[in-house]
Design goal:
Blueprint: H1 2-9, H2 15-33, H3 38-47
């Protein structure tokens, strides 16, 4: 997915942006593997209420 993102946008503006993108994609991938609702999980993370248990 990183390569696709780089091809689409040309590049990441910063290394920190690339790192954040990879962390978010990894988290979403984990949610999919656990068959969890992605949007509600992301909202829970922002609220500080999320748990993988």
């Amino acid at each position: 997915m990183m390569k696709v993102k780089q091809i689409v946008s040309g590049h990441f503006r910063t290394n920190e942006g690339a790192k954040q993108f990879a962390q978010i994609r990894g988290f979403i991938s984990t949610l999919r593997k656990q068959d969890r609702d992605i949007l509600s999980s992301l909202v829970s993370v922002v609220r500080g209420e999320f748990s993988l248990q």
